[in-house]
Amino acid sequence: MKLATIGVGNAGSKLIDQMIEFEVETGRNLCRHALIINTARTDLAKPENIPEDRRVLMGDTHRKARGHGVGGDAEIGAEVAKTDIDEIRRVFDDVEIHEVDAVLVAAGLGGGTGSGAAPVVIDEIQKMYDEPVYGLGVLPGKYEGGRPALNAARSLQSFVNKVDNFIAFDNDAWRSRGQTIEQGYEEMNEELATRIVTLLAAGEVDESEVGENAMDSSDIMRTLDTGGVSSIGYASTELAPAKQGLLSKFNDEDQSEDESTDAAKIKGLVRRAVNSRLTVPCEVSSADRALIVFAGPPEAISRKGVESAREWLESAADTVDVLAGDDPRPGSSTLAAVVLLSNVTETPRIDEIQNQAVDAQNKIREQDAVREEEIQSLITDDDNDLDPIV
Ligand code: GDP
C-alpha cells in the first residue's frame, strides 16, 4: 500500500518518524508523503526523518499556545486546529493524493494536541479526499492518571466516528519495568512501527517478483473497511542458512518431511503472533475480519503452512473473512507473520480507560464547583457588607 502519513502532536510525529526509519532500514516503500503537525516548537524539531518543510507549527499566535504546546488540554488542541485549518489545508494541497491508496493519521490520545487536533485534521482530509483515512492511536497507560484517560476516551470517540479504521496501541500493555519513560517509548515506537509497516507495506513489491500468492493492497484495504477498532499481532523467526546438498532434493521422503516441518513452523508463527502481545489486547474471537501477511523469502513460505495457518485463524477469530498473502522479501534472513484483527469489539483496556475517564470527569467537575465556592468565600466578608466597585 502507498500512504500519506500525518503525525499530530508529539507521539504522533514520533511514530511517523519511526515508521519511515523502519521502512528505509528494511528497503520498504510505504510512506510516500509525511507531514507532522504540532503546537510545540521544540517537539516539532525532534523527528529525524521528516523534511523541514513538512513540519507545521499551529497555534503560534493563539494566546494559550504561542508555540509552547497546549498543556494537555484537548479542547485547546481542537480549537487551535480549527483556527489554523486554512494553513493546514494549504500544506495538504502539496500532497499528490493520486499517488497514494490511503491516508494514515497518528496521534497519542492522552495529550492535548494529538487528541484534540487530530480529529479536526481528519474532518478536513475527509472533506478534501475520497481515499480512506486510517487512524493510528496510542492509548495512555493507567499510571498516567485521570486527565490523559479522559482525553483518550473522548478523543477515541471522535477518531472512531471519523476514520475508516482505527488501529490502537496500548501503552499499558507494552510498558516494561526498569526503563525510563523515554526508553520505554522508544522501544514501543519501534515495536509499533515494525508491525504497522510490515502490514501496510505489503502489496508494494516489484512487479516482476509478484507471485500469485502475493498480498494485494486492496485485500488490506478490504480488511480495514470494517470501521471500528483494530489490533495487530506479530511474530518473527530467524531463518537457518539455506539447506545445502543437492542429494536431499532427490530424496522424496526427506523432502516431504521438510515440507511438513515448514508448514508447522508457519502455522506456529501465526499462533505466536496472535497469542503474544497484540498492539491492543483484545478478545480475538470478537474480530470482524482478519488478515495475515507473511514477509520473508518466498522459499520459506510453505503453501501448506499458509493454508493451515489461515484455517486456524478462521476458527480462532470465529470469522470466515480471513485473508492470507505474502510480502516476498528475497534474501531476507527473517520470516515474519503479521496479523490484523479488524474491528475487535472486546478490548478490556478501552473499558478501563472509559471508567477511569468518567471518574476523572466527575472529580474535575466537583473540584471546579468547590473551588468556585472557595474563591467566593475568600473575597467576600463574613457578613457580606461589602460590594465590588464595578
Ligand atoms: P501531545 O503532543 O499534546 O499530543 O501529547 P504527547 O503526544 O506528548 O502525549 C500524548 C500521549 O501519548 C501521552 O499521554 C502518552 O500516553 C503517549 N506518548 C507520548 N509520547 C509517546 C511515545 O513516544 N510513544 C508512545 N507509545 N506513547 C507516547
- Look at the helices and sheets and give the structural class: alpha/beta
Q: What is the total domain count?
A: 2
Ligand list: guanosine-5'-diphosphate
Determine the number of helices (DSSP H or I, runs of at least 4 residues): 13
Largest sheet geometry: 10 strands, mixed
Structural Rg? 24 Å
How helix-rich are the residues, as a percent range?
A: 40-55%
What spatial order of strands do you see in the largest sheet?
Answer: 3-2-1-4-5-6-7-10-8-9
Descriptive account of the structure:
The protein is of the alpha/beta class and about 400 residues long. It folds into two domains: about 200 residues, Tubulin/FtsZ, GTPase domain (Rossmann fold); about 120 residues, 60s Ribosomal Protein L30, Chain: A (2-Layer Sandwich). Helices cover about 45% and strands about 20% of the residues. It contains 13 helices and ten strands. It has a ten-stranded mixed sheet, with helices on both faces. Strand 1, helix 1 and strand 2 form a beta-alpha-beta unit. Helix 5 packs parallel to helix 6. The radius of gyration is 24 Å and the shape is elongated. The protein starts with a strand and ends in an 11-residue tail after the last helix. Bound molecules: guanosine-5'-diphosphate. The site of guanosine-5'-diphosphate has 18 residues, from helix 1, helix 5 and helix 8. Belongs to the CetZ family. Its main location: cytoplasm. Involved in cell shape control. It holds the Pfam family CetZ_C. GO terms for molecular function: GTP binding; GTPase activity.
